[in-house]
Amino acid sequence: MRKLFFLPLIFVLNLFWLGCDKDEELIQTSFMNVQWIESFEEKTSEEIEVYRTGNVDDFPPSWYRQIFYFDVNNEVEYSVLAANDAHYMTSGTWEYDEEMKIINIYNSDSEKVFEFKIVEQTDQVLKLIANP
Question: What average pLDDT does the segment 87-96 reach?
Answer without folding.
Answer: 95
